[in-house]
């Protein structure tokens, strides 16, 4: 590359590398930047689908195929976690929504909760787990299997629970999800073939930084109206934020307890994955044709999604240290007995 071009690209590359090295702090900062700059929301909202597509490409591009194959040789845990996140969660949320009469009393909120429960986990979940020192490989493998199922499970649960609440039919929703996922997987495969897995791993930090930039684009687009909503209807806006935090941490706690037998460190990694729902994928599949209340709730979910990994870091460090100490003790015991 000519020296002029090298100098042009050097500064952005250093910036992305620095940003990628900030870890959960940068992820947490995204939500506050998006909240502080409302005009960007209107500007970027038309590009929500493109932002989701790029995030999917980055995640698929970074899949560790060797680790994926290794975990698939022990499929029981992955299958159980996949069934819980893609079938158990939407069934429970769907029953709660209907039993409480929320579908009739607040249909737009019911729609938001159902779309949240039907969504697959966020593609950034393995990266967040890695930043927290948790088992990112287990999260990745479960995420891949859950994402493969979402076109079919989302179509099924939309038929069962949404009953005409969407502007798109359940089969069309499934087909759009399948198309988005297939196109992003194809693009990621082409990128891996061109640049190679080694180069992608070598440039991990700038790619992390670019991923955070795209997260900012998405968060800004979805949160563009939050400041005005907070002024216009403060009680409902704060209530939606409280509900988003409550659902996030309930899913996190229940999943961690359900899988505690595999160790709390790995169970917390699965809990993080289950609570991080990919609402952007649902927005892309519905082309953003959702009621304002549904949009507002989706915006409020960005707070726990971006803040929780930073908040949970001390717990993750303690669990990781305990797991490492247990492993070292077990290894020492075996050596002594040998």
UniProtKB/TrEMBL annotation:
<feature type="transmembrane region" description="Helical">
    <location>
        <begin position="138"/>
        <end position="161"/>
    </location>
</feature>
<feature type="transmembrane region" description="Helical">
    <location>
        <begin position="238"/>
        <end position="260"/>
    </location>
</feature>
<feature type="transmembrane region" description="Helical">
    <location>
        <begin position="109"/>
        <end position="131"/>
    </location>
</feature>
<dbReference type="InterPro" id="IPR038770">
    <property type="entry name" value="Na+/solute_symporter_sf"/>
</dbReference>
<feature type="transmembrane region" description="Helical">
    <location>
        <begin position="207"/>
        <end position="226"/>
    </location>
</feature>
<feature type="transmembrane region" description="Helical">
    <location>
        <begin position="26"/>
        <end position="45"/>
    </location>
</feature>
<protein>
    <submittedName>
        <fullName>Na+-dependent transporter</fullName>
    </submittedName>
</protein>
<feature type="transmembrane region" description="Helical">
    <location>
        <begin position="173"/>
        <end position="195"/>
    </location>
</feature>
<feature type="transmembrane region" description="Helical">
    <location>
        <begin position="76"/>
        <end position="97"/>
    </location>
</feature>
<keyword id="KW-1133">Transmembrane helix</keyword>
<keyword id="KW-0472">Membrane</keyword>
<keyword id="KW-0812">Transmembrane</keyword>
């Amino acid at each position: 590359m000519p020296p002029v071009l090298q100098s042009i690209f050097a500064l952005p590359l250093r910036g992305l590398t620095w940003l990628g090295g900030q870890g959960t702090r940068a992820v947490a900062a995204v939500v506050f930047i998006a909240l502080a700059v409302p005009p960007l929301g209107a500007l970027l909202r038309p590009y929500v689908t493109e932002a989701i597509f790029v995030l999917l490409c980055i995640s698929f591009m970074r899949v560790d195929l060797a680790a994926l194959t290794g975990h698939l040789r022990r499929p029981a845990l992955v299958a159980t976690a996949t069934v819980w996140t893609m079938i158990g969660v939407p069934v429970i949320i769907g029953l709660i929504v209907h039993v409480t009469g929320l579908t009739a009393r607040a249909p737009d909120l019911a729609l938001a909760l159902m779309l949240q429960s039907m969504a697959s986990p966020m593609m950034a979940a393995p990266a967040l787990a890695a930043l927290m020192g948790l088992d990112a490989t287990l999260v990745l493998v479960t995420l891949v299997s859950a994402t493969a199922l979402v076109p079919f499970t989302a179509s099924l649960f939309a038929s069962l629970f949404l009953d005409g609440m969407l502007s798109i039919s359940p089969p069309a929703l499934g087909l759009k999800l399948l198309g988005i996922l297939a196109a992003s997987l194809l693009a990621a495969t082409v990128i891996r073939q061109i640049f190679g897995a080694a180069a992608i791993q070598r440039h991990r930090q700038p790619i992390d930084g670019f991923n955070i930039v795209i997260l900012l684009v998405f968060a800004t687009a979805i949160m563009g109206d939050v400041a005005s909503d907070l002024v216009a209807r403060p009680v409902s806006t704060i209530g939606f934020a409280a509900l988003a935090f409550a659902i996030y941490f309930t899913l996190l706690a229940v999943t961690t307890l359900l899988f505690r037998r595999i160790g709390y460190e790995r169970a917390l990694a699965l809990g993080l994955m289950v609570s991080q729902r990919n609402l952007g994928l649902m927005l892309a599949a519905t082309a953003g044709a959702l009621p304002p209340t549904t949009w507002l709730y989706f915006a409020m979910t960005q707070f726990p999604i971006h803040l929780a990994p930073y908040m949970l870091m001390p717990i993750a460090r303690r669990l990781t240290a305990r797991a490492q100490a247990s492993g070292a003790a077990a290894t020492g015991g075996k050596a002594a007995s040998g």
